[in-house]
Amino acid sequence: MTVEDVPAVHEIEKRSFPSGTWSIDAFYHEVEKNEFGHYFVVEAEEEVIGYLGMWIVIDQAQITTVAIREDKRGMGLSKILLEYIMNYARLTCEMMSLEVREENAVARALYEKMGFSYGGLRRDYYGAGQDAKVMWVRLRDE
Ligand SMILES: CC(C)(COP(=O)(O)OP(=O)(O)OC[C@H]1O[C@@H](n2cnc3c(N)ncnc32)[C@H](O)[C@@H]1OP(=O)(O)O)[C@@H](O)C(=O)NCCC(=O)NCCS
């Protein structure tokens, strides 16, 4: 993801997370300033149609956000994107984790398919009464 991609990414973000959206400045900050941030886009015909972000801190990777544009969902793109970033993170990380809303059955099914397991609950993570499930996967053994 480059600075030029951010407006298109933020459009997808607004439509994908109506109950809580990152600001456009949050994306600029992640891409330009966060030394731990690693952000990727999926493009088709030079248009951004999906994105994924993660933080890598020493040997731990944490997915911060992922979405595919509505009209491109159900085609296996997020599986390809996750496989790509899991291989990328595997070079330096032993584990990858993420938070997901309990009611987001589609995302939970995706993560389970990619080998993630439940690790616990973060209470009120998305606001009062809105808990997050923590999911994680081991990327390599040592
Ligand atoms: C979650 C999301 C990224 C999945 O992207 P996608 O490219 O449509 O997913 P894929 O086509 O790669 O499907 C991957 C797996 O997700 C699950 N899945 C996808 N669409 C599904 C649906 N409509 N119902 C149930 N499971 C579904 C399936 O397990 C699927 O694997 P399969 O095709 O082998 O059955 C997409 O739905 C999205 O952007 N949602 C809004 C944002 C969001 O919720 N992000 C996750 C925040 S934690």
TrEMBL record:
Q: What is this protein called?
A: [Ribosomal protein bS18]-alanine N-acetyltransferase
Please name one Pfam family that this protein belongs to.
Answer: Acetyltransf_1
Which purpose does this protein serve, as stated in its record?
A: Acetylates the N-terminal alanine of ribosomal protein bS18.
Q: Tell me which NCBIfam families the record gives.
A: rimI
What EC number(s) would the UniProt record show?
A: 2.3.1.266
Q: Does the keyword Zinc apply?
A: no
Primary location class = cytoplasm
N-acetyltransferase domain: residues covered: 1-140
Q: Which family does it belong to?
A: Belongs to the acetyltransferase family. RimI subfamily.
For this record, an example GO cellular component is: cytoplasm
Origin species, per record, is Macrococcus brunensis
Q: Which domain of life is it from?
A: Bacteria
Gene label: rimI
One GO MF term on file is: protein-N-terminal-alanine acetyltransferase activity
Give the subcellular location: Cytoplasm
Q: Which InterPro entries match?
A: AcTrfase_RimI/Ard1, Acyl_CoA_acyltransferase, GNAT_dom
